[in-house]
Amino acid sequence: MPEACPVCGQRYEPEPGFYWGAMYITFAFSTGIMLVVGFLVYFLLNDPDTWVYVTAVAFFAVILTPLSLRYSRTLMLYLFGGVRYQPDRANGTGRATTAS
Q1: Would residue 25 count as lying in a domain?
Q2: In a domain, 15, yes or no
Q3: What is the structure's pLDDT at 6?
């Protein structure tokens, strides 16, 4: 992930250690992925063997990890970083602002 947005210059890490909280959001995303995949395997394959569950959940957890990490950091930035989207500044001429 880049250090700052190439369009507006918004830093993705406003302070050291800011994304420690994003680890908890990533954990919640991973738990949701595992539950959804587990239920889908159960209902679509009519309760297969345990190794099918483990393989399917592990596969999707690994494949979706990059998305989970990016979205958890973005969610943390929007919820607790004071970042607000300003469409008039998205053309590259201005800089993103943070709420005070």
Answers
A1: yes
A2: no
A3: 80
Number of domains in the chain: 1
| Full domain range(s) for residue 25 | 20-78
> Minimal CA–CA distance to 24: which of 58, 88, 68, 63?
68
For Cα atoms 43, 37, 56, give the angle at the middle one, nearest 5 degrees: 100
pLDDT category of residue 10 using cuts at 50, 70 and 90? confident
Measured from the Cβ of residue 56, the count of other Cβ atoms closer than 10 Å reads 18
So what's the pLDDT on residue 61? 93
Structure token digits, residue 55: 């393989």
Whether 92 shows a pLDDT value over 70: the answer reads no
For 41, the enclosing helix (H) or strand (E) is helix 20-44
